[in-house]
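Why this split exists: single-chain examples teach little about how molecules sit against one another. For that reason, every record in the complexes split bundles all components of an assembly together and asks for one structure covering all of them. Below is a record exactly as it appears in the raw files.
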Amino acid sequence: MTPNLTYVIVIGVLVAAGVTLLLERSLTRVLMGVILLGNGANLLLLTGGQAGGPPIVGTTPQEEMSDPLPQAMILTAIVITLGMTAFLLALAYRSWHLNGHDEVQDDVEDRRIMDLAERDEGPGDADAGSGDDDDDDDPTGGNRPVATTADAGRTG
Amino acid sequence: MTYLVPLPVVMPLLGAALTLLLLGRPRAQRWVSLTVLTATVAVAATLLVRSSMDGPLVVEVGGWVAPLGIVLVADQLAALMLVVSASVTLCVLVYSIGQGMADGSEETPLSVYHPTYLVLTAGVCNAFLSGDLFNLYVGFEILLVASYVLLTLGSTETRIRAGTTYVVVSLLSSVIFLIAIGLVYASTGTLNLAQLVDRLDALPDDLRLLLQGMLLLAFGIKAAVFPLSAWLPDSYPTAPAPVTAVFAGLLTKVGVYAIIRTETLLFPGGRTATLLLVTAVLTMVVGILGAVAQSDIKRLLSFTLISHIGYMLFGVGLTSSLGLSAAIFYVVHHITIQTTLFLAAGLVERRGGSTAMDRLGGLARLSPLLAVLFFVPALNLAGIPPFSGFLGKLGLVQAGIDDGGPLAWILVVGGLLTSLLTLYAVARVWNLAFWRAPHPDMPAGDDAEQAARTDGAVEPDEGTAGQSGAVLPKLMIAPTIALVAFGLALTVVAGPLFELSTDAADDLLRRTPYVDAVFPGGAP
Amino acid sequence: MLALVAVHALTAVIAPALVRLWGRNALYLVALVPGATLVWALTHTAGVRSGDPVVETVPWVPQLGLELALRMGTLSWLMVVLVGGVGALVLAYSARYFRNDDPGLGRFAAVFVAFAGAMLGLAVSDDLLLLYVFWELTTVFSYLLIGSDPAKRASRRAAMQALLVTTLGGLAMLAGFVMLGQHAGTYRWSEIAGNLPGGGYLTVAALLILLGALSKSAIFPFSFWLPGAMAAPTPVSAYLHAAAMVKAGVFLVALLGPALAAAAPWRPVLLATGLLTMFLGGWAALRQVDLKLLLAYGTVSQLGLLMVILGAGTRDTALAGAAMVLAHALFKATLFLTVGVIDHTAGTRDLRELSGLGRRAPALAVVAGLAAASMAGLPPMAGFVAKEAAVEALLHGGVVDLVVLAGVLLGSVLTVAYTLRFLWGAFADKPGIEATEAKPLSWPFLAPTAVLALAGVAVGLLAPAVDRLLTPYADLYPSAEPGYHLALWHGLTPALGLSALAVAGGLGLFHLLRRETVRASLRLPFDGAAGYQKLIAGVDRLAVELTGATQRGSLPFYLGVILVVLVLLPGGALLAGAPWSGGFHLWDTPLQAVAGAVVVVAAVMAACALRRLTAMILVGVAGYGIALMFILHGAPDLALTQFLVETVTIVMFVLVLRRLPVKFSERPIRASRRGRVAIGVAVGAVTAGMAYVAAGARVAEPVSVGFPDEAVSYGGGKNVVNVTLVDIRAWDTMGEIAVLVVAATGVASLIFRRARDLDRRGDIPGGGRTETARPRWLTTGATARAQSVILQVVTRLLFHAIVLFSIYLLFSGHNAPGGGFAAGLVAGLALAVRYLAGGRTELNGAAPVDAGVVLGAGLFVAVGTGVAAMLLGGEFLQSALLDFHLPVLGHIHFVTSVFFDVGVYLIVVGLVLDILRSLGAEMDRQQETEGGAEVREKELV
């Protein structure tokens, strides 16, 4: 089997365009990227089987038939992509409904930690970490005097 | 016996169909789900017993002889995975039912929840059983699409945002997997794993490396291997507690399973062993440092999840029998423990009103039972002996030291450090959320004073359970207790379990048991 | 022995209940458990003394060399006696130390007895891994006990500090154990000892193990955690941090010493760190004003001494070390308990506030005095006997030993000085300080302390007996000459003289340091705690920096990372050496190039489009182009399905895009365009390259060559692709329809956010409400053509024809292009047309069922077909060919897989119906109920 150069080129372009769209913020574009990528992958599956006549017994002689197995796989993949498309569209709509746009937002919690990193701070409430010893906790919590253990830490 | 093999997939799917037909009748749905999953556990257990006794069980679906049709193979590894995952899903189901009922909202998307949850189970089981590369892809798709739906349940703003990240990353991984399949088929002309053994061996080394790389990439994303892991902590923690729990326990492990399966069966000889080991140590260390940086319990647990995937890769990368069997043992342990911890985190959220550590406190006194339910699996996760986490880690350290190479030593050190940092991370949770004086914002709860009066009881007897029952529904506590007990049982039966995982590892490394089972008359 | 450990565990479980029942008196009951341990050990004394260890083995995880192998030799016996005896006494003491209403009492009892069990297990483990298990358990229990008062930040912090430091050492030790075990092929110490590796391997292993021992026993540079651990209640300090847990490291050194002393680093490390710790600890003890901390630093100092003696590694030092372990446990536990009593009676343990307590509580003073005498090494106490033995043993050694001896004597001077400081601080009358008020002492409270103190005296007086008990351990060291024997009186030896000198020196030092000015000038050069804090802060900072750098929270970033990995790894493999086949063909037919060009142009333009609708149309064009390529490839089924799917996709897009803004937002498009395009091109190139290489590499015949024959004979159909879908690979298809079902459910769950709405989505009466809402809906304009009555009529007419056609496609699919998917999509399109023409009412009229039910039914039919085959004795999803005659229709050739295809059909219809209901009808309804104004407002934002 030799590669079909047309397929190879189309695959490359579909994937390139798909990836470019995938890296966007707008969910609609991302979805379009997914569709293009899916098409590229399907075409790639197709290159795994030889071309020929429709694989229908009686219509095409067996040796001239195109390979049916990749076709079955592609069919499955196409339909799965359809389901995904529907789901992503619903997601895009819901996102728009909630936020007024369909752009993918950055994670808030990650942003918080990146800010900490920029300010050169630790995770903050680390009980074992640095920081002063002032007992910010409920002072009524203790019921037995534990003398000067804080002192102990310093004199080591 | 082979008629049992498809059932772990078929039964949940039938159950999903039934629950869809029973839309709007939550009670009937619940019974269908419970019945189906209980039956799945039973079938899986039978499969495990039979496959240990008679070797891998193979079914040619539809009667189509391999390699024409699709084969399902229940070898020891697959059966073991089935048993653990089915048990865990069952426990989580009960928990989620408890949560739903307690919320008094029969109308929370429970009618969507049951069919989706069952399909998720079917997908996981399918992935474990599949003996066909494309069918493995389908299995992944099933569980992924179900996970998309579960993650976005309720469609709140955070879940939509987190869901988007998760869905898009997963879609990319699916495309990569599909491309990999296309490449494999193009170069070998088959999809049957057992047949691929020979055909891949016949390919030029570099092409095989290429195929291996693509598959590793696809599975690596699903398994959350650094640097492909960053999506996980952003998405998992936002889901409802039981959903996060089942995701954390199972979904990444399906990726790990796929890595184990393909690395041992299709690409033996360890050409990517170095790569695996390097990513393993990075995953461990970067992951656990991520956990240290967090201030929210669920997020922290998500990072430990990533980190401990590194342990499993460590075992796979060593390519020795001991390493592999320890990795398998670790997978079983980690499925159980990580799920348990997320369930416990769900209980914390319910009791304390949050999982942010700076808004929690005093839980050890407020709810001693909850304290035990968190503390024991947390120590287990940190690899404190005698728990199963320690045993798995011990096996890995032994295998690493046996290996003796410089990289293996780096991994041993990295693994032990990770274990220490895990302890640091969970101990911080304990210090802040459980020990510190209660946060003023926390819901007081009627049991607070009672609990304080009767002091910190350690044993989970009905006295304390009834007491916290005012806040924590029994149906949520019971499955958590069951999973904690299951985790402890792993320690007790560690001997037989390690024997099983060693057998499974040896079979994997020999490759012939799998191939012979699929092609009794020799590979075509 | 296992049974004893189990009893401890069990008691731990029920202890809280006992405490709830009987209050603090329950501790007496709990004390019986370690007491039983003591009795059990004593009953085995004779056997152990005659060199006949008690052995017990139960398998656990043989693959890891981990077994419950227990072995009680002399050294273990000594530890068991201490653990049991001191444990029982401290528990008895605790029964009066705590108040009945102490909230943490139940937990204390449980964790304490659990700790005693772990310590017992540690002492008798023969399997090194098992030893590690108990080792870590003591760490964890100690963590819980230090945090007894968790509302205090200092207390929590101290607990964490002890946990991390000792676990760090423990993990290193584990690695050392594994090195030894993997080399010897066993983990039983009794077997490893005779099969040690050599050279650098042993050195590394020994160092790692030492790390564990030093951290556990608070030896420099790990000393700092122990004073911090004094946050624990005093009974805990007395037991864990004086008598038992901190002895674990010492015990380990003593246990492994006979064999590992041969390792290069063993002696130097132990001697150096031990001496250093002894000085630093003693020095620090002299500065303390809190009696408990004074004792804590004293303990640190004495642990250093123990390490030195046991690390010296000769028979006589070993004997001295064992005796000292015993002596130290007795006097140090006594002194801690004394501090607890003082704390209770006087309400403080600050020596600046205490005065005249000796006269008010003379009994207590006597008890403390006995223990203090032992600590200072005065005859006839146990401490004296042990120290004499040590001095004597070192005196006869080489140069190193003499240096060490000098160090030990210096340490003794410090010890005597801080002992005096303790006694003075606790009991003396101090001028200028008001005499301390003291509550009367109850005997039950004092008794356990007194018993411990008297035991110290007894050991001293019975030195020869103790000697006989301990020599079997010492004899594990090879020794040429007849060894030393413990005794109270050896005559006027040099050792005695040196001891006396040390005592005198101590007295002098104490008097020197009573002056406040001198004491203040004693500053320690080292601060281990600060190092720990720095390290932890460093880890925290590193964690934040690393996480901030890798966890960017941005989806494009994550995708970019994945894609870059794809370009680097498989792409790298591609460039490095993948076999580029020489041969290729441009196309199968030139038309492919034409279709390909269409796809390429459409895809590139779609990537650049700024308007949603344009982009969507271009993507659609690319899709149709692909369908064309499918036809040219010889895949009509694919082409048909692709065509239909593309159309349904466009319908869906239109439904959703009518709500979204016309243009994509500008913000992120420009900023990083080049980067994105670069990644896109690279990934595209790599993928194309891989496709080229893979397709050129095929040599084997594909499995599908057998499909056509089998499809006809076994699958009963001529359309090979369809037979593949519904029969050969029906299992895939089953999974695929499960995906569809869930996707449909997911769409509904996203759009209908509440289940109540979801359940109603099939209701035809829903149309009733549309009537009132219709005018507003029409004003949206986009679907104004719905007004067209003619269109509605036409579509109604067409509808049935299309549905019929779809059913034809369904059944003919087995032999000609078509099948369940295509047929279902056609039927779905028919529904779409009805909806587009007439809105919700029309849709409900056309399909008056709940989409969920259609989906469920379809899944049920498809999976049920498979199950039925199984019930009839075939494999799951096995099909059967049925040929029979019907009166009117004539010969019927029927394949059961058609049922499966019917299931597929239903699911696809259900999916489209669901999409129309959610993305179409429900979105309309939400629009209406929310009112246009609000939506417009959002659009402006």
